[in-house]
Amino acid sequence: PILYSYFRSSCSWRVRIALALKGISYDLVPVNLLKDGGQQFSAEFKAVNPMQQVPTLKIDGITLSQSLAIIHYLEDTHPKPRLLPQDPKKKAQVRMIADHIASGIQPLQNLSILKQMGEKKMEWAQNCITTGFQALEQILQHTAGRYCVGDEVSMADLCLVPQVFNAERYKVDMGPYPTITRINKALLELEAFKVSHPSRQPDTPAELQA
Fold first, then answer.
1. CA quadruple 30, 132, 145, 186: dihedral positive or negative?
2. Which of 14, 76, 82, 203 sits most deeply, having the most CB atoms within 10 A of its CB?
3. What's domain 88-193's architecture?
4. What is the model's pLDDT at position 53?
5. What residues of the chain score a pLDDT lower than 70?
6. Which class does domain 2-81 fall in?
């Protein structure tokens, strides 16, 4: 497998965690979203992913984009460890939380949107994340065990940790979100979350390396 990734991309991080959890080795091709006006806009990368976004995964003779679609494929082809519970209610809760983050928070504060916000980008990012986290904190109070849904790591957790990282980057006050904070701390103790962390990637700038 070949993963096109950017060290600080939260969507790429989700996929890196899934690959690490499932023990799938891969080659990483860095795509710097800032350098050269954004390497994702090159003709070479557009041929790989017409949406000009990371992550993109070449695996088993196909090319997949969109982090959740990639994770679903990995789940179908490498079912252990499971990232979706077998219980239909818990599975629906995992998908709900993953979508809440992947559709309801992250796209509103990603690089392409923030570029358009100019000087208001910090305020905009904080507002988007705060609104999403207020809802997420309430949801997790009903679903969480050690992790987002019960005591098993799921796709929801793969979305949560990178989003908390973004929140901290944009200086969101995490005080009002004790459940999110507790789960995030527990997840960051797991090896798959450590090795996939933005501070430990081949394309991480020296000053940001762990």
1. positive
2. 14
3. Up-down Bundle (1.20)
4. 93
5. none
6. alpha beta
